[in-house]
Amino acid sequence: MAASHRQGGDRLSALPDRALEHILSNLMSVEAVRTSVLSRRWRDVYEAVPVVDLVDTKTGQRCDRFDDIKVCFDYQVASAILCKGPGTPIRALRLTVVDGGDPMDQWIDTAVNSSLEDLDLTHKNKGPSTRSGLYHETNACYYYFTPPQIFRCRALRRLRITNWTLDLPGCLDMASLETLCLTRVTDKGQGGMLPQLLSSCPRLTNLTLEDCPSIDEEIVVTSRCLRSFAMICCNNAAGIKLQTTCLRSLHYTGRLPRSAFIAIADYQGVTAVRIEICENLSGLGPRDVAPIMTLISRCENLTYLDVSLCPSMAYYSSLLASVLRSLPRLRQLGLQGCLPTDHAIRSVAALLLNTHNLEVLSLLPLDHPQDPEPPKEKILLYLSDSESDTEIEDSHVTRAINNGVKCSGRMPDTLWKMYIGCLHHKVRRINIQGYQGLPLEKMLARFLLSRAAALEELSVTLAAGLYPHKNKIATELRSWRLNGRTKVTCK
Read out DSSP for 59-80? Predict the structure, then answer.
């Protein structure tokens, strides 16, 4: 390698073919083909790359040096498939299309016959095409039928489809499928397509369902190998039943479930949970949020928990704190939400009092609504069990609020006097995302830094427009450190 470099070559070209093919497999197919003009060494390397990755822009792509020549997308895909060497299988096919039809059926047939392992099909939903489809009024877009040969590919291990209507053949062969991701996918109409698909995947280990409007039944996953499940904005589903004892990761985003919405065969095996409730919880009582709290508490071996509740960060902290006390193995905690008053900061502190072994804390302060409804009566919030509701009502909630955010940066006495064991002894890293430098954000950062004796690093991701001021912000954050060796980074 060194000799080749001294003779005028380069180290990258001196790598073996297998290494170069692996590098090109991470590029779009158009970019991989362009490397053929670099030198003789690169002339034929792209032909052995087992990946076809193209996006239909409907504006065409430049053909080498001729800027005025546009290349048809159908021709691009056909050329990318046919240019492969006789001994090069197509292991991965990733296409973003505007229209389907017969050409796409032929592309998939060729890939399936070549022992396809990874398929990613995304439809841009531009309207009717030559392929018949269904129009969904809620999402105001067309969902075209999936090519049936996809579901007869025995070698397929990863399948991701976006903006399609499931159209399953009579016989399914998905024995090797391990990862399935369905985004904005609808049922053909008669129902039962999704259960049929899931029941035909005995080796499924990762399942993601996102924004699927036609799922209105209970979802039953029979795969005993399932390790990761995510359901995002599938608000019409009647319930989830996971018949696996191998589940390790659970992600739920959507409306607040009104009952025991998710049933897991083995709660003890779950180690990571992410819950994001999009519904505003104002006006709801403890019984309404009990199902989601019960779900978290049953996963007693959690090491990672990420919670997002509205309308404020750590909302219903009294209930959540009691849940955290039952999670002795919790090492990482993430909280998302608004900071409308200093009560949200006190709620975060109340949670940290009950996380004795916490090592990593991640916070994402969200923008408060610009025009909130002014409170007409005292608001009842739930803080730590040691604070009474009367104290909360009389202390700060009824103070003036400017645009929904309390402007005073003075830290309440209750925060100054509070001792949090995990901050003093355990927490090694704190991440704050979307930091804008607002008074309450500063109060929260100062409170954490002034008590984090064991903290090794504070990583702050600044909001848009604040990057030019990162040095000034970093200097201010460093001035609040209890541990002078804590590394503070702003990016």
Answer: S--EETTEEEEE--HHHHHHHH
pLDDT tens-place string over residues 219-250: 899 999 999 999 999 988 888 999 999 999 99
Strands (E), 318-472: 332-338, 360-366, 429-435, 457-462
pTM, two decimals, is: 0.82
* CA-CA-CA-CA torsion sign (299, 301, 306, 308): positive
State the pairing for strand pair 66-70/62-63: antiparallel
Q: Which of 322, 273, 277, 275 is nearest to 302 (CA)?
A: 273
The radius of gyration computed from the CA coordinates of the chain, to the nearest angstrom, equals 27
Percent of all residues in the chain with a pLDDT value above 90, rounded to a whole number: 46
144 φ/ψ angles, rounded to the nearest 5 degrees:
-85, 150
The rounded distance, in Å, linking the Cα atoms of 204 and 90 is 22
- pLDDT per residue over 311-352, tens digit each? 788 888 888 999 999 999 999 999 998 888 888 898 999 999
Strand 141-145: give its sheet, edge to edge: 133-136, 141-145, 164-165
* Terminal CA-CA length for the chain: 38
Phi, psi at 362, each rounded to 5°: -120, 130
Mean pLDDT is lowest, of 36-40, 116-120, 432-436, for 36-40
